[in-house]
Structure formats: C-alpha cells, structure tokens
Amino acid sequence: MTFNVEAIREDFPILRRQVHGRQLVYLDSANTSQKPNAVINAISDHYRNHNANIHRANHVLGEEATAAYEGAREKVARLINAPASENIVFTRNITEAINLVARTWGAANLHEGDNIVLTQLEHHSNIVPWYILREQNRFEIRFIEVDDRQRLRTEQIRDMVDSRTKLVALNHVSNSMGTINPVEEFIEAAHRVGALCLIDGAQSVPHMPVDVQALDADFYGFTGHKALGPTGVGVLYAKREVLEGMPPFLGGGEMIRRVDFESATWNDIPWKFEAGTPNIADVVGLGAAVDYLEALGLDNVRDHERDLTAYAFDTLRTRFNDLKIYGPNDPDEHAGILSLNFPEIHPHDLGQILDSRGIAVRAGHHCAQPLMRTLGIAGTARASFHVYNTRDEVDAFADGLEAARNYFSDLPMRTVAPTAVPVPAEAQQP
Amino acid sequence: MAIPEPQLDDLYQEIIVDHYRNPRNKGPLPDAMVACQQDNPFCGDEITVELRVEDGVVSDLMWDGRGCSISLSSASMMSDELKGKSVDEALAFAAHFRELMQGKGDQSEWEELGDLEALKGVTKFAVRVKCATLAWATFEEALQQAQAHS
C-alpha cells in the first residue's frame, strides 16, 4: 500500500471540521490522535451487533464479544512483536500501565538501599507513580540528565546504573521534546546489573515500528488514544516470567481462579491483571486502529512523519531567526513533535493566536514540569504530527507563528485603541 | 441563535499588553511580612505575591513570576489597584473581581474597575480565566497569612 495522505485524510471525518471559520489544522496528536472511520465504526458495530460481557456469557453474543476482545489482544501482540497475546495486559492508559508495574512488581521488588534510574525527559506518569511507591518502599530515584539539545546523556548510565539498581525506566520518544531515545543502550545497561527495564512507548508505538523482543524490553507500555484508537484503553507488555512473578493489581471478578471464604487463587496471565468487566468496546476499537496502522505500514508512517519534521525544520528556520526549536536537530533523532518558543511570546499566548486561525497545538509544560524547570522555561508551544498531516499544514502553522509574532510586536504600536467588539447580553451570561 | 466568535482583540487589549511589557510593582519587596506563591498546573505559570500590612491597610505589595500576558498583566493591574486599600476593601475587591471573571454577578460592573476592565474579554475564553485570577488567589492567600501573623 502506498502512503497517500489525501486518501488517509478522507478516513478521518473530524479533519473536515471548520474552526473559527477556517479549516481545522490539527497539530496536537501527541496529546491525542484523531480517529479514522474504521475505529469509530468498529466501536459502533460492537454496541449495535455484538455487545455482551466477555468470558462469562454462554451465548452467541458473549462468544462474539470475547472473540473480538481477545482478537484485539492478538493484534496488539503482533503490532509490537510480543511472543504471545498472554504478554499483553489491557489497562486504561499508559499511566495505569506504569502504576500497575509500580504497585505490583515495584512494591514487591524495590526496597531501602535499592535505586531506580529514570531520566529528565520523563512524563509525570513515569515519575509520580515511583514517588508514591517511594513513600512506602524507601528506595532511591535517580535521573539521567539531558544535553543542550535535550538528548539523554548516555555517558551518565555508567555512574547511575549500579549493582543496587533494580529498574531503569524511560520513554522511547520524549512527549515534550520529540527526542527519540536510544533505549537499547538503557535496556542493555539494566540487564548488565540484573535490573529490569521499562519503556514508555506512548509516543513511539503510534509512529514507528517497535519490536519488544528485539529490544529485549521487560516492560513496554503504550496508550490507545494516541495510536488512532479510542480513549480509555492502554497496553502493558511484559515478559512472561516477569508477569507470572508479579502479585495481582486490582482484585475482583475475572482476575481469580477460585474464591472461598478463606482465600482466593489468581487467574492466569494476563487476566490476573484485568479485574472487573474491562473496556470491551474500546479494546475492540483499538484492534481496529492497529489494523489501520499496520495497513499503512509503520515504516511508512515513520518516513512520512520524518519528512514532515525535516520540512518543518527547514521552513521554520528559514522564516524565523528568533524561534527556539527544542530537541535534536537531526530528523533521524527527532520524532514528529516540535516544541518551540519565541523569546517574547508566552506559549499560552502563542497557542491562543494559533487557535484563532483554526490551528490546534498544545501550549504548556506537557506534563514534564521538572524538565521545564531544568530548561528555565514555563513551557513550550508544541506541534505534533500524525499520519494525516501535510506539508501544507506545516506552512499554515508557520503562517500562524508569523501572525502571532506580528500581532504581539504590533500591539503597542497602535495609535488607535483596538475596536472592542460589543458583547451581546446573552454572551455575557455564564 | 449564533453566539459571536470571540475576537482576539477582545482578549489582548492594548492596556493588557502595556502592563505585560511594563509591569508595575514587579520584583521583591524588602521587609515583606509574607510571601506566597501559587501556580497554574495547567500551564506552569507561577506568581509570587509579597506584601506588608500596617494598621489594617495593605501598605505595600509587590509581585513576581512568569506567565502569559493575561496572568502577568492581571498581576500588574492588581498591584496598582490593591496597594493602599484597607484589608477589608482589598479582600472585597478581589472577591468581586474573581466573581466577575467567572462570569457571575452583574457584568455591567466591569465598567467601574478602571484598567481592569480590559480583562473583561478574558471571560469569553474559558481556559484563560485561571490565568487572570492566579495573582488574585495568590494575593488572598498572602493576605490571610499576613493577618494570621498579626
């Protein structure tokens, strides 16, 4: 299948929306991606034709729903090349996946005197669960630093990962800076000292080929809603022996084998970690998203976004000499996430001007407050790409940046007060 | 009934940009009685308010921080407005401002707020209301601490 962006855009009904009287330019896919008809229809079809509870309804609908749910697990396993579907645990999102690891594996294995190694590029979801666990388990948390292009300083691995390191955990792609991290080096370093390695793949799985076996990752998580799938579904991959050694997470139905008035025994993996009726319809929707991404080809997706990133670098550097673009200069090391700042314009104000032109970006700290403090900034404006974005949209983004810069530099020069648009009474009501 | 699109010029009035570029009462306050910092977790903006209270009057007030044009201009205008007011007047004014900013109360009373009327347009941009009220919430907390000390 050739990669035809115009044809792809036809699959995403929301891209036809008008915002503030203009064609929507959606550059906020690192926040959440838009959904193709295939996903929307799969969810609708599930509720219209197959809805039943799974694993516990002995009727046709129950069998169909179970087959669809477990079929999605197989699709996810294939997407990241997990050895088997049993390695795949469904969660609400990547945040819950990391919390699951912290509260089960972490609670059982991290103790006073131990340490875990994170990085300055982590999202709050790969920092805070460990802070919470540290309250009880008293281990040390270390952070690998970034260099002046927000790349991880891998030379620090040697000093930070030591014989008391039990876990190394980092993202594959930085959600705030776009850096593609050399996770293989971290996984190897962890294994050299007998530690495990967790990779947060929230910004990688939707955009590039990922092979958890080739990486030899012990844990690998991602979230469905950034991968063209619905909100409310996340994925935790773990090696079989790791999953089998972990105590259960939440207790309830589905996760047990047998319960009596004295005690209970646990179900097999992965169901041991899926207490209660899961998010069946959205798991089915995620399965459709995986089909869609695989039909495009993750190599092609990566090539497309690399092209957009390179084009954006060229365009923005040519048009603006005062625009700071964070992250590596080389598009080979940089995912389709552009974090940037003008010296005199707060990202929040920049985002507002862009929104007024129908361009959706995210402005703020991107759930990476410690990194923003390290960089000495409140935040950035972040444009992020997915399969449906085009060079024309990069141009529209650049036009929006120019308009923002002109807007703020022009404002104090005005000799006439701006015309306040009278607000009708009904618009003033709360 | 179509509600008109909010216009950028409603948001970024000239007075706002002036206060953003030339902030009043910004910096540390020597001999401050209290210093309070609050942040807006949505965008990472931070405002610190330092003040002195003497004989029931906010005798001096300085602020510092980083943020967008809305949050910093609001802080600047607030410092002009509240410095010199009695504690009771200042608290009542802050409560009134926050009420109007949240779209409550008699919206015609914006006209009585001087420069601060320029912030009226923010009420139409829901996510920016917190920007405009950050300094005021920080001020209220600082004043409560100052009173607890005295």
Question: What this model shows, in words?
Answer:
Chain A has helices at 5-10, 37-50, 60-79, 94-109, 128-137, 157-160, 183-192, 212-215, 240-245, 280-296, 298-319, 347-356, 369-375, 391-410, 425-428; strands spanning 18-19, 22-23, 25-26, 88-91, 115-119, 140-144, 165-171, 196-200, 219-223, 234-238, 256-259, 264-266, 324-325, 337-341, 359-360, 362-364, 380-384. Chain A is an alpha/beta fold and 430 residues long. In chain A, the strands form five sheets. Chain A has a seven-stranded mixed β-sheet with strand order 4-10-9-8-7-5-6, sandwiched between helices. A four-stranded antiparallel β-sheet of chain A has the order 13-14-17-16, with helices on one face. A two-stranded antiparallel sheet of chain A has the order 1-2. The termini of chain A are far apart. Chain B is an alpha+beta fold. In chain B, strands 1-2-3 form a three-stranded antiparallel β-sheet, covered by helices on one side. Classes of the chains: A alpha/beta (430), B alpha+beta (150). The A-B interface holds A 20-21, 346-349, 352-353, 356, 363-365, 369, 372, 378-379, 407-408, 411-412, 414, 417-421, 423-424, 426-430 and B 1, 3-5, 7-14, 17-18, 21, 42-46, 66-70, 102-104, 107, 121, 123-125, 128, 131.
Provide a compact summary of the structure.
The complex is a heterodimer of chains A (430) and B (150). Chain A is α/β, with parallel strands linked by helices and 430 residues long. Chain A has 15 helices and 17 strands.
Provide tags for this entry.
A: alpha/beta, 15 helices, 40% helix, globular, B: alpha+beta, 3-stranded antiparallel beta sheet, 41% helix
Topology:
The complex is a heterodimer of chains A (430) and B (150).
Chain A: H1 5-10, E1 18-19, E2 22-23, E3 25-26, H2 37-50, H3 60-79, E4 88-91, H4 94-109, E5 115-119, H5 128-137, E6 140-144, H6 157-160, E7 165-171, H7 183-192, E8 196-200, H8 212-215, E9 219-223, E10 234-238, H9 240-245, E11 256-259, E12 264-266, H10 280-296, H11 298-319, E13 324-325, E14 337-341, H12 347-356, E15 359-360, E16 362-364, H13 369-375, E17 380-384, H14 391-410, H15 425-428
Parallel strand pairs in A: 3-15, 5-6, 5-7, 7-8, 8-9
Antiparallel strand pairs in A: 1-2, 4-10, 9-10, 11-12, 13-14, 14-17, 16-17
Chain B: H1 8-11, H2 14-21, E1 34-40, E2 45-54, E3 57-66, H3 69-82, H4 87-101, H5 129-149
Antiparallel strand pairs in B: 1-2, 2-3
Helix pairs in contact in B: 2-3, 3-5, 4-5
